[in-house]
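Handoff note, outgoing to incoming analyst
You'll be picking up this chain. Sequence as last confirmed:
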Amino acid sequence: MNKILKKIIFLFLLMSSLSLAQASDLLVYGIEDEIDTGIEAIVLRDPFWPVGYNPDSKQVFEQVAEPDSENENKIDESAPVVEVAEIPVDEEEWETAEKTIPRQSGIFSARNPESGKSELKMLLDKKNYFAGDLLYVTNNAIEFVWKIDSIEFSPPSFKTSRVRAERVPKTR
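Most recent structure output, in case you need it:
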């Protein structure tokens, strides 16, 4: 074996699972058959096989049955229906949520894609809003919705009106 090929094999063996001592022993003692076998094993191994898997062995794997898609989404009609009383959202929760509405980061004039007119537009959390758009905020597992009534350029501000608030179900 020429020197360049030995160096390449040595580096290749170092990058594999062999330690420095094992790789140098293989090259120093001239065990070229073992090197070739080791390289073949490394090259022929599929990287997506599980650790310790040998394709030549006769390993038996359990067949997992595929889920029955028809029965998977069926609701058990014999189960009792439990209705949960929804707790109404009070004024204090609205006020707390209003404090979490982000501050506008910019107000400018732009063409509204729905009306085609030039209107004032503002940025809240990197999203564009025109007057009349809905603003959604989730706070303490309650989704609050406000309608943006107006956007003022000077001083930069906007006015909102409450639309609705509903508690987020635990299944979401």
